[in-house]
Design a protein that fits this description.
It is built from 31 helices and six strands. The chain is mainly α and 593 residues long. Strand 4 and strand 5 form a beta hairpin. About 4% of the residues have low confidence.
C-alpha cells in the first residue's frame, strides 16, 4: 500500500497530466482522496501547472468535501491566469461561491489572484466591491494585497484611485513603487511616472531592473534625454548594465531621444544581445531616416545568427521609405515570406504604400493596397496613401483615398486637412471650403496637438497658444525675438497676410475663409512655444529635442530650419512619423516628410 508521503513525493515530481492520472488512480485505490494535503496538491497541479488542465481541476475540486481556502485559491488562481475572458470570469464566480457556499475565508493569495482577474476582464465594479471587503477584513495593511489592488484599479483605468491606494499604504516595498510607476507608463502618463523617480530615491527602497526599464520607457516617450542619461549612469554605478532588459531599454531610450551614437555605444558594450536588442537599433536607424545604416545592421544581425521577426522588417521598411530606397525596401518586403516565413501585417503593407508613395510612385502604392489582404476593411493603408498624395499634390488619387475612408466610416479631421492641403496647393479654394464645411457639418473632432521639451531635468508640455505655463509671458516675449531673428534670414509664415489676401481675392464668395486663416496665422503651434522656452532656458549652442504627437506642419518645419541657423543650434524634432534633425538651416528629411 502506497503511503501518503510517497504519493506527495510523486505529485511533487509530476510533470504531465498522463502521470497525474496514474497518481490520481493510486490516491483513489488507497483511499487518500479525503486527505487535505494530497487533494490540495493534486488540485494545485491541475489548476496552476502549465502541464495541468482546468477542466480536470474542476472535477477534482467538486469531489473535495468542504474545500478549504488553499483549494479555493488554486481554482481562483488557475482561472485568473487564463487568457480566456470566460475563464477569467470563472475566477470571480469561484470567489463568489467561496463567500456564499463555504465557511472558508479569503486570504492574501485569494485577493491577489482575484484582483488579477478583475484587472484582466475590466471589472471595476467588482474591484471596488472587493476593496471594501479587503478593508473590512483588515487586509488594507497588507502590502501584497494593496499592490495588487492598485494594479487592478489602474488596469481598469482608475489611475487616481490606484494612486490613493498607494498613498494609503502604511508600508510600501520596491514592488509597490514599481507597480505604480508601471501603471503610469501603461496609461501614457509618462510625466507622472518620471516624477516618481525622486520619490523612490527619498523612500530608500532602492531600485532594480524593473524600476529602470519603466523609467527609461517614460524617458523615451517624452524625449527626456538628460534624465535618461542620469538613469544610465545610475545603472552603470549599480551594475545593472549586465541586465539585458535594462540594456535594451537604454538603446530604445537613446534612439527615441535622438542620440543614435549613444544607442550604438550601449549596443556595443552589451555582453548579451537578443532580437529586441538588434531591433531597437534597426528601428532607431529607420525612424531617423537612415535606411542604409538599418540595412547594414540587419546584415550584422544575420551574421550573428539572430533570427529576425516582424518588428525587424518594420524598422527596415521604415528606413527605406524615409531615405527613398525603393528597390531595397521591396526586396526586404519579399524577403519576409520567402526567406524567413513571416507573414506581412497591416503595418508592413502600410510601409510599402509609404515607400512607393513618398517616391512619387502613387500607382504602385495603389496596387499594393489592392493586392493586400487588408484592402476591404482597413483605413490605415488609404490614410497612408492620402499622406503621399499631399506630398506630391495628386488631387485625383487623394480624392479616391478620401472616398474610401468615407466608405469605411473612418474619416477623421486629419484626413480632411490633408485633402484640404492638396486642394490649397492646387489653388482649388472651393475644394478647401468643402473640406472645412465637411469638418463642421459632420462634427469631426481634431486631435489636439502638443509638444514636450526637457529643460533642467523637467519635462514641459505645450499646446497651441498655450498660456498655462508659469513662465508664459517670458516665453511669448522670447518667441517674438525668435520669430524676428528667423525673419531676418528669410522666414515667412506659411499663409502670411499677403498670401491670404491673394487667396481671398481669388475666392471672394467665402470671406469667412480669410477670417479663419487669418486667425490661424496669428496662433502659435506648440513646437514654437517649446523652441522659444528651450532657447530662453538653455545655454547657447545647446541642442534642443522636441517631441510632438502630430506630424510637423509645413510652417513649423520652415520656422525650425531658420531658427536652427539664426541661433546656431541643432534642433531635433520627433513627430508622429519620423525624426527631423535641423542644423544650419537644413533638415535631415530634405523637406520630404
Amino acid at each position: 500500500m502506497a503511503t501518503s508521503r510517497a504519493i506527495l513525493s510523486l505529485l511533487q515530481g509530476c510533470n504531465s497530466m498522463r502521470k497525474l492520472h496514474k497518481i490520481h488512480a493510486h490516491i483513489l485505490i488507497n483511499g487518500y482522496q479525503d486527505d487535505p494535503c494530497i487533494s490540495e496538491r493534486l488540485l494545485n497541479f491541475c489548476a496552476v501547472s502549465v502541464s495541468g488542465s482546468l477542466q480536470y481541476a474542476q472535477l477534482v475540486f467538486h469531489r473535495i468535501h468542504n474545500p478549504q481556502t488553499p483549494a479555493w485559491n488554486s481554482m481562483i488562481r488557475g482561472f485568473s491566469l487564463s487568457p480566456s475572458p470566460l475563464q477569467l470570469q470563472a475566477a470571480i464566480l469561484y470567489y463568489n461561491q467561496m463567500l456564499s457556499a463555504s465557511d472558508s475565508r479569503p486570504d492574501t493569495f485569494t485577493f491577489s489572484f482575484l484582483l488579477k482577474a478583475c484587472e484582466q476582464v475590466k471589472e471595476e465594479a467588482k474591484c471596488r466591491e472587493v476593496h471594501g471587503f479587503i478593508i473590512r477584513l483588515g487586509y488594507d495593511r497588507d502590502v501584497v494585497v494593496c499592490t495588487n489592488l492598485l494594479r487592478s484599479y489602474a488596469g481598469n483605468g482608475s489611475i487616481e484611485t490606484a494612486h490613493k491606494v498607494f498613498e494609503g499604504m502604511p508600508v510600501r516595498d520596491l514592488v509597490s513603487w514599481n507597480s505604480l510607476i508601471s501603471c503610469y507608463c501603461q496609461a501614457g502618463l509618462h510625466e507622472e511616472a518620471l516624477r516618481m523617480y525622486d520619490e523612490v530615491r527619498i523612500s530608500k527602497v532602492g531600485f532594480d531592473g524593473f524600476t529602470l526599464v519603466s523609467l527609461l520607457s517614460s524617458c523615451a516617450h517624452v524625449g527626456a534625454l538628460h534624465m535618461g542619461a542620469q538613469l544610465h549612469s545610475f545603472a552603470r554605478e549599480k551594475r545593472f548594465l549586465e541586465n539585458i532588459f535594462v540594456g535594451n531599454a537604454l538603446i530604445d531610450m537613446y534612439a527615441k531621444c535622438g542620440s543614435l551614437a549613444s544607442a550604438l555605444s550601449v549596443f556595443n558594450s552589451m555582453p548579451k544581445r537578443d532580437v529586441f536588442t538588434w531591433n531597437s537599433m534597426i528601428v532607431g536607424y529607420g525612424v531617423h531616416g537612415r535606411g542604409n545604416e538599418a540595412l547594414a545592421f540587419f546584415e550584422r544581425m544575420l551574421m550573428a545568427r539572430v533570427q529576425p521577426n516582424s518588428i525587424t522588417f518594420l524598422g527596415l521598411l521604415c528606413g527605406c521609405s524615409h531615405q527613398g530606397l525603393v528597390r531595397e525596401g521591396v526586396r526586404c518586403f519579399h524577403m519576409m515570406s520567402s526567406e524567413f516565413n513571416l507573414e506581412p501585417g497591416i503595418k508592413h503593407y502600410g510601409c510599402m504604400v509609404d515607400l512607393y508613395g513618398r517616391a512619387g510612385k502613387l500607382k504602385e502604392a495603389l496596387q499594393v493596397i489592392r493586392s493586400s489582404p487588408f484592402f476591404q476593411d482597413d483605413p490605415v493603408l488609404w490614410r497612408t496613401l492620402l499622406g503621399s498624395c499631399k506630398i506630391h499634390r495628386n488631387v485625383e488619387i487623394g480624392e479616391m483615398a478620401t472616398g474610401k475612408l468615407v466608405h469605411l466610416g473612418s474619416l477623421c479631421a486629419g484626413d480632411c486637412v490633408l485633402l484640404s492641403g492638396i486642394y490649397a496647393e492646387s489653388k482649388d479654394m472651393l475644394g478647401v471650403a468643402r473640406m472645412r464645411k465637411l469638418i463642421q457639418s459632420e462634427g469631426i473632432k481634431t486631435t489636439p496637438g502638443w509638444s514636450w521639451i526637457e529643460v533642467s531635468n523637467q519635462v514641459h508640455k505645450f499646446v497651441v497658444d498655450d498660456k498655462s505655463h508659469p513662465d508664459s509671458k517670458e516665453i511669448y516675449r522670447k518667441l517674438e525675438e525668435v520669430v524676428h531673428r528667423a525673419s531676418l534670414l528669410g522666414y515667412a509664415k506659411e499663409g502670411s497676410e499677403k498670401s491670404l489676401v491673394e487667396e481671398s481675392e481669388s475666392h471672394p464668395q467665402d470671406y469667412s475663409y480669410y477670417c479663419r486663416e487669418r486667425e490661424n496665422c496669428t496662433s502659435f503651434h506648440s513646437e514654437k512655444l517649446a523652441i522659444a522656452y528651450g532657447v530662453s532656458r538653455t545655454p547657447e549652442g545647446t541642442s534642443l529635442l522636441i517631441v510632438k504627437n502630430l506630424r510637423v506642419c509645413r510652417d513649423c518645419h520652415s520656422f525650425t530650419k531658420f531658427v536652427s541657423k539664426a541661433f546656431d543650434r541643432e534642433i531635433i524634432v520627433r513627430d508622429r512619423v519620423r525624426f527631423h534633425h535641423f542644423r544650419d538651416g537644413h533638415c535631415s528629411c530634405k523637406d520630404y516628410w
